[in-house]
From TrEMBL:
Protein name: Beta-galactosidase
Similarity annotation: Belongs to the glycosyl hydrolase 35 family.
PANTHER family in UniProt: BETA-GALACTOSIDASE RELATED
Stretches assigned to the SUEL-type lectin domain: 685-771
Enzyme Commission number(s) of this protein: 3.2.1.23
Source organism of the structure: Nelumbo nucifera
The keyword DNA-binding is annotated on this UniProt entry: no
Domain of life, per lineage: Eukaryota
Amino acid sequence: MLFSGSIHYPRSTPEMWPSLISKAKEGGLDVIQTYVFWSQHEPQPGQYNFEGRYDLVRFIKEIQAQGLYATLRIGPYIEAEWSYGGLPFWLHDVPGIIYRSDNEPFKCYMQNFTTKIVNLMKEEKLYASQGGPIILSQIENEYKNVEGSFHEKGPAYVRWAAQMAVGLQTGVPWVMCKQDDAPDPVINACNGMMCGQTFAGPNSPNKPSIWTENWTSFFQVFGGKPYIRSAEDIAFHVALFIAAKKGSYINYYMYHGGTNFGRTGSAYVTTSYYDQAPLDEYGLVRQPKWGHLKELHSAIKLCTEPLLWGTHTNFSLGNLQEAHIFQGESGECSAFLVNNDAVIAKVNFQNLSYELPQQSISTLPDCKNVVFNTRKVSTQYSARSTELSQKFDSSDQWKEFREVIPKFEETSITADMLLDHMDATKDVSDYLWYTFSFQNNSSDDQSLLQVDSLGHVVHAFLNKTYIGSAHGSYKNPGSSLNISISLSNGMTDVSLLSVMVGLPNSGAYLEHRVAGLRGVKIQGIGNGSQDFSKYQWGYQVGLVGEKFRAYNEESSSEVQWNNLGTYKPPLTWYKTTFDAPAGDDPVVLNLSTMSKGEVWVNGQSIGRYWVSFHTDGGVPSQALYHVPRSFIKPSGNLLVLLEEFGGDPLHITLDTVTISKVCGHVSESHLPPVASWGGGQHKTHHKRRSVQIECPHGRIISKILFASFGNPSGDCKSYAIGSCHSSNSKAVVEKACLGRRHCSIPQSIKAFGGDPCSGTPKALLVDAKCI
């Protein structure tokens, strides 16, 4: 019975790995699951990179050192909201290649890389068959989504991939996710949020029931809102998968999402990845998600023997209620009571009465006593906040470099057609300049420039002067620009900058996908219009600042930096310096006054930003950008930003992130911690319920923001004093908690010196501030 969590090594830093894995273990996980990132490990054919954030062996050994298992999802196509689905772009130029099909060129390179990774793991003795931590490997990824597009080449490829993987003789099983017909002995696995309902089950009786991706949230895109999935919903579907599908391996995707550093995120995906996971982007514990799932894991582990070796039966307890029972040969019995209704249900089970909250599952390790209910959250809630560390509000702190706008005669690549953006750039840059010049023989005040693009953003310049921009969105990736222009008599230069915010990462025939400008017209030249799509074009890959590495201390002198001007034009580079904030709290840049671009600290890209792309609610999808502590020196850190639209760097701030508030809420219907069962002995326990709150390491409870013993209304998200309230609630809690990192306050009449309202069920809600 294994609980697993996805942590992707390139989305954090080696310095973060030990803490992330330790917190995962403390949260009740047995396994760490990760993809393998082909595009980063083999940036050019036969040239490999396993350094820094890409040190896969170091990551797996850290998992092993902490006593956990590992699952290696080699793919090597991974999707994962990673640019190009993790495939290296050089594959695009292999003659005759068709990705993920029964295609010899692709199979050759796929087998080479898969073999490279397997051999690397074998050399380090990291497979469980060698005494290592890797217990499971994955080949391919959600192939059923595209298999039909390849017709007879699809099933043939599945059979080949399975046979190739098994032939590598790792000594541990292989899995294919979302592949119901995975060939023996490869295990078919489920992905999604509701695999307890949607999974058809193993396709062979000798295969376990595996859930490789239980989405704890969902990836976020620029212009989109974060997806909030509650701890209660996650716990419900995990318990249902175990009870109804006899699940024995559940992986949380993601357990820690991390950061899409550099240009690694796929099309329109934010730099922050799965921030709503049990461990947030910075590695801070997100409560109550982390704690509630920890309680679930403890409860399930109490049922291990009957779950794994017992006989499973199920029967109805009502219209929308059912029981799942696991009976062992020696009399052990565990049960799960499921309420699928949207209201509370009372049921009878084995001559006892139980109240089941709406949309919940109760776990009974001994078929009698409820130790956990997925709806009842007894762990604390927490809220994080930022603290200002440094302002950059003095223009004297900044230098700027205005990007050079090329015109046709200054470009070295020419073609009499519009080139594909991705093919032209080979993914070495997000940027491709399209330029052309033409002779205009009259002055036209009512001309209209029309640009259609499959790129994500297009910036337009007329005679090197900015005239406008347009962008698409995740659901409508292309962009169209229609802008009125005034043409003078003489030579006219048009420069159009196509921008990609990550490459596509999914779908069939990815190698045929194109981007960039598809059509350019000018209406109103003379008495008509002119289509420039098949005109003579000049191209420049990337920006001048990229070419000279303006973001590096060593090479930034290659460009001409000037004092900060009052005008903030598009396509401007900015640089300044800062010192490391005191302490060890995570560090972020608040870029809320910027617009769109990329940011570097000491030459390392912390990712793309796009603050001006607001959600439907009118707020940025992401304003805070993580700067790992390992990127920072004690003083003199170089901060460089490339700003596309003209944001204001004077209001950027350097902040730290911390857990600033903790809140606990228990009532008479809440259950004591599962740990109070102790040693797995299945007998009724009488441990008193209590509110337990805890600040992060190095912080203490400084203020009680709210305390009520009685019947407070609401919960930790929103609360108020109810009709019953002990007047000394705050005093009792302050005495127990102030000045301490952790405190426990019993939910009892005795603790509060008497009953404030006899006959009313009592609850205790405490909200506290940490400093």
